[in-house]
Amino acid sequence: MNTKIKSSFSERAFQTGIIVVLSLVGLLCLFPFYYIVVVSFATPAEFRLGGLLLFPKAWTLISYEYILSTKAFVKSAGISGFLAIVGTVASLIATSTLSYGLSRRRLKGRKLLMLMILLTTLFNPGIIPGYLVVKELGMINSISSLIIPVLTNGWYVLLMKGFFDSIPPSLDEAAHIDGCNDISVWFRIILPLSLPSLAAFGLFYAVGYWNTFFTAVLYINNHERWPLQILLQNMLIDSSTAMGVNALVETGMQNIPSETKKMAAVVISTLPILVVYPFLQKHFAKGAMVGSVKE
User: Which Pfam families does this chain map to (predicted)?
Assistant: First the structure.
């Protein structure tokens, strides 16, 4: 039996209005990035004409060639890539193993550890105590200072623990009866079951490490160890200083406007996350929400 409910004219008009408003908001949010991409591909002569550049008459890669030919940018991109890969793997190992341990009732001191982790989500020790700890550990101007202090996140630990709580203990017991130890149970049974959750939190960690900025400002004084976001900030202030005083002369690209170079650098620094995101997006809802609702 067909039981379609006909919507009134006012309801259809309201829904249409909502769609129009949200579409306009979406376009306004996308326009700045579109403008950045357009300017990065514009020729120096066309950019110098001034005005709002919506679509260049001629497209060129000269700004990208300049950015990728400078040692400072390539080195900073390598540092950010190292942080995103090594830091994400280390954070996932620390977060998942800690969450799994807390989900097992046989762990001694489980409630005390849970309380300590919960306190980290409520209270922040502050900038100065964190800096003093990093300094006393001898990690100033070290890449490790951008990974170890933010190795795990209390909120992610609690969410992952909720997921591991949904795995019945009988599964562990059956594996132990078959001769598996705790490490074998983790790698052969628990880890494959938690791949959606690891994919979601892995992307969160990767974005955080790739966009490392504030901790680098605090702990990295050597410009040769700047991650990409620090270099971009300095480029916005003074591109010739950030990229090297002699970079323009060495590459023979003295006539490139600084604005097109900045836009090209922003596009290059954003591209890796945009490329990775579609492949992991399908895991977001399942991975981030799993364990947060009790069945």
Answer: BPD_transp_1
